[in-house]
Amino acid sequence: MENRRREIIEEIFKAVLLAAFLGGVVFFASVFAFLGMLPLYGAVLVPVVGVAAIILIVILACSFSGPKLKRRALAVFCLILAGSAVYGVWGWHDSGIAELEERDNLLWKYGPFEEESLVATLDEEADLKFSAQEAESLRLDGATALYPVYSAFVRATFPEGDYRVYDGTDDGYGQITCSGTTHAYQRLLEGRTDMIFVAGPSQAQLEMAEAAGMEYHLTPIGREAFVFFVNSKNQVEGLTVEQVQGIYSGEITNWKELGGKNQKIRPFQRAANSGSQTALERLMGDIPIIEPEERDRIAGMGGIIREVASYKNYDNAIGFSFRFYSTEMVKNGDIRLLALDGVLPTKETIRDGSYPVSNRFFAVTAAPVGEPAPQETDGAIKDLLDWILSEEGQELVEKTGYVSLS
């Protein structure tokens, strides 16, 4: 009897040691899960499954646990695994849908003729008014950040109608759509749209046009600031352009070098050929950009803001976008725009040239190499471009929140 009691005590002691060891493993795995910026559902699953595994292993390791208890523990663990798998798949699927829905809702708010649309309007009727037939011949596309301004052009010059971003035709995009910079350039070359509103093309997009025997025709229509931002809890308030280049070249890797905390810098990037990634490439010039980890390259503009705003990234993340998109379209109070060379990005500093990184944005058409630009042969395209550059068109650029050319 005494021997059996001693054996049970020894087994309990061993079980406690095993549980403590496994608990430590689960604890550090959980910490790394959060520091590794797993999505919330992933970070939740690690400790839940880990604790369940500890309990199961301890029960199975103890001889005084009867067969019935062991079977029940195994069954419960299998149920937890199955539930975790379902939760994980749902979380992964839901996170992808959430980003799409977020963007769609954002675009809907700026629809040209939607009720309570945020789109800018003129005080009086525009000098240019297309007939229904003329309007049907114009297909427009562009960058997410510029949809509010070309939606305002449509509202001013097109007959009232239901201009849906997605309408189920050919590739699913509507007549007045917003497929994003990368797809907009591609659709323009393929003849799926007539004019796009975007930042200037990347080197890859220029090469894509050359391979297709096409060339772009760019008409500047306004200016905007290219901005960098950190989490609002980050104590760094400004950088120099040279310091930004140092971060994105990999020469500067810790916020301590920039007057911040002793934390490794996590520089997020966008997808290749997106408007903001191309703007970063222009800023960097001949300086090579570090290759980001897969989880640090964000597809959507809203995604890069959301990641930097996350509480998990409060002390080490940096991202980039365009001023109007990040301050007016998204309005996320958990990020703070950085001053560059001591100057904050505002309409006034863009206008007077004191903010060092402002870019023109364009209305872009395309034609086969050597052939006239579409605005030279298509009256509707020419009329719209001329009007955009007129006092009324430039007024809408300003009213939307960008900076006009004049």
Structure, explained:
This protein is α/β, with parallel strands linked by helices and 406 residues long. It folds into 2 domains: 2-100; 110-406, Periplasmic binding protein-like II (D-Maltodextrin-Binding Protein, domain 2). Helices cover 49% and strands 14% of the residues. The protein has 15 helices and 11 strands. It has helices at residues 2-35, 40-61, 67-109, 132-136, 147-157, 181-189, 203-211, 241-249, 275-284, 301-309, 323-329, 347-351, 374-377, 379-388, 391-400; strands spanning 140-142, 195-199, 214-231, 238-239, 266-267, 269-270, 297-298, 317-322, 335-337, 339-340, 358-368. The strands form 3 sheets. Strands 1, 2, 3, 5, 8, 9 and 11 form a 7-stranded mixed beta sheet that branches. Helix 2 runs antiparallel to helix 3 (67-109). It is globular, with a radius of gyration of 28 Å.
Count of all domains: 2
Query: How many individual β-strands?
Result: 11
Fraction in beta strands: 5-15%
Kindly report how far apart the N and C termini lie: 97 Å
Q: Give the integer mean of the pLDDT values.
A: 83
Helix content: 40-55%
What's the order of the H and E elements? HHHHEHHEHEEHEEHEHEHEEHEHHH
